[in-house]
Amino acid sequence: MPVLRRLSMSLLFAVMALLPSAASALPLGPTVPSTSQTDSMTAESDGAPDAYEGIFFPVRLPLDAMDNTWGAPRSGGRSHAGTDILAPQMAPAYATVDGEIMRARGEDCVEGQVCRDYYLAIAGDDGRGYLYIHLNDDTPDRPNGCDGLGGVEHAFAPRLVEELKERGTLEGVRVEAGEHIGYTGSSGNADCGVDHIHFEIWEAHDWGASGRVNPYDELVAAIDAGSTRHEVDDLGAPATRALLASQLAITQ
Ligand SMILES: [Zn+2]
Asked: Which Gene3D superfamilies match (predicted)?
């Protein structure tokens, strides 16, 4: 649509003019999406170039921050084996590849029960495994703080919740690259902490037993290729920071 194209081009030029200050403003950024926004308000990007064969970016843009913390020390003597993607509570999470769900932690949570650990693991058709930890466990907007009362409806995407009701488990459910699968939060060992998705890539469908891959470069490549979804403004244009792909690489 010509009008929208002109709008998005003017937005792009406006963003380019702002680049130096925008870079120094991260990770605060100009846009803090409301947690009441749902996936229906997102829009696909222009799409990745045909040559791109990498993963789909697993969290809606814009992010709060993303850094390469592979190998960084963690509690209990562990070293960090993934990438932490910081985004607002309830920011949608997406399947990175076609595949099927291996495990959905928290899927047995019943309404009204306090449940504080939700995650999804996907067995990719590409032979690798993909793990999303810290899916949302709280009531949206947290009117009562981190209450752990979000339930499955605010941890997993609506289609998966329907599948869960029908099948009793999410194990074996097929997902497609780019499909909405869940919501960002702070459950598990990040409970009541910073909202983010801890994202891992395994070399096989074996919980990392064969080895894990540092996802960071693949995540940056997905953003740079436009293999993403992002929040949009009232005119249908992507939220500003979604255009600042290279600025998401906040180095230590
Ligand atoms: Zn992490």
From this structure: Glucose Permease (Domain IIA)
Using the mean position of ligand 1's atoms as its centre, give its distance from the Cα of residue 189 in Å: 10
| Cα angle 150, 182, 87; round to 5 | 85
**Statement: the pTM of the whole predicted model exceeds 0.85:** no
Show the tokens assigned to 156. 């997993």
| 223 pLDDT above the threshold of 60 | yes
Q: What is the CATH number of the domain that holds 129?
A: 2.70.70.10
From ligand 1's centre to the CA of 87, what distance in Å?
Answer: 13
Domain with 162, as residue range(s), is: 2-248
- State the total domains in the chain: 1
Per-residue pLDDT, 116: 98
Q: Which amino acid is at 106?
A: G
pLDDT score of 146 more than 70: yes
69: left (phi over 0), alpha (psi -120 to 50) or beta: alpha
- Ligand 1 centre distance from Cα of residue 159 (Å): 26
pLDDT band (50, 70, 90) for residue 236: confident
**89 CA distance to ligand 1 middle (Å):** 16
Of the ranges 24-28, 76-80, 235-239, which is most confident? 76-80
Compute φ and ψ for 98, nearest 5 degrees: -70, 145
- Cα 132 to ligand 1 centre (Å): 10
Q: Is the pLDDT of residue 156 over 50?
A: yes
Distance 73 CA to ligand 1 centre (A): 11
